[in-house]
Amino acid sequence: MNTLSTILIVVGLFLLGGVISFSKQKLPKGAIVLLGIASAMCLVAGVMRLQGVWA
Prior knowledge:
By secondary structure, the protein is mostly helical. About 85% of the residues lie in helices and about 0% in strands.
């Protein structure tokens, strides 16, 4: 597993935890959506880098 892909996946999961925490605290929807988009982008980038390594 590539180091950068691992970092991207870990950061994506960290941001996903922030989305869950922010939604439980009933914070503004804009912040939750922004964190969700950032989380999805990190996770997708990490997985795509993994597919490039394994292909």
